[in-house]
Amino acid sequence: DQQVKQNSPSLSVQEGRISILNCDYTNSMFDYFLWYKKYPAEGPTFLISISSIKDKNEDGRFTVFLNKSAKHLSLHIVPSQPGDSAVYFCAASARLYAGNMLTFGGGTRLMVKP
Amino acid sequence: DAGVIQSPRHEVTEMGQEVTLRCKPISGHNSLFWYRQTMMRGLELLIYFNNNVPIDDSGMPEDRFSAKMPNASFSTLKIQPSEPRDSAVYFCASSQDRSNEQFFGPGTRLTVL
Question: Measured between alpha carbons, how far is A39 from A41 in angstroms, rounded to an integer?
């Protein structure tokens, strides 16, 4: 049973527009969430994170929103750039119970068209 | 820092052969993770070490898979015997104890014919 789900396997967005990537989770013990970005032939790299005590975290063009009641988080990229084209993974951690283990979603491939 | 180092980057082998994947974590990191990425299942955690001790190996598919961490700077993931369904990209990641941010290596693409 997947505890972290990214229901959209792919997303296509025009350059300059907003990209919204979504992630849902089922485990109410998760208290820390991360987004990773992955280019082909490379390992995932950390992008942005959010603790469950917050509902928003912003870093430049990237903002993560957390809705705990809906067990849903989203990553907003604005404006989107062609270099943002990559696979984005959502990950969650139950720090109190599982230390620094992460559970990953299946990923969403973002394509930003010039 | 060189980051997490994995070798080989690519491995092609025949069914039944033994495969050994290697990982050198970032110096000072005391947690190490092995993941497998496939189209069907995304990124799956196989095993997690903390201070060289296996903490959670519930993701290891079956007895054909084994992992060791003899010291803080080296880990191996072994598949014996390998099967075509083991074909995937295997990632190693490391982190510090008090951080959830994991740093990934470039991965090993394994193809079992």
Answer: 6
Closest-approach residue (CA) in chain A for B44: A104
Verify whether the Cβ–Cβ distance B97 to A101 is below 8 Å.
no
Decide if B78 contacts B72 (C-beta within 8 A). no
Write out A43-85 in H/E/C secondary structure.
CCEEEEEEECCCCEEEECCEEEEEECCCCEEEEEECCCCHHHC
Question: What does the DSSP 8-state code read for residue B98?
Answer: T
Q: Tens digit of pLDDT per residue, chain B (113 long)?
A: 689 999 999 999 999 999 999 999 999 999 999 999 988 788 999 999 999 999 999 999 889 999 999 999 999 999 999 999 999 999 999 998 777 889 999 999 999 99
Within 8 A of B105 by CB-CB distance, chain A residues are 43
As given in the structure block, the two tokens for residue A100 are: 């620094």
Decide if B38 touches A, using CB distance below 8 A.
no
Q: Which residues in A lie closer than 8 A to residue B47 (C-beta atoms)?
A: none
At a CB cut-off of 8 Å and minimum separation 6, what does A82 contact?
A15, A112, A113, A114
Mutation test of the interface with chain A: which of B23, B102, B103, choosing the one with the most A Cβ atoms within 10 A? Answer: B102
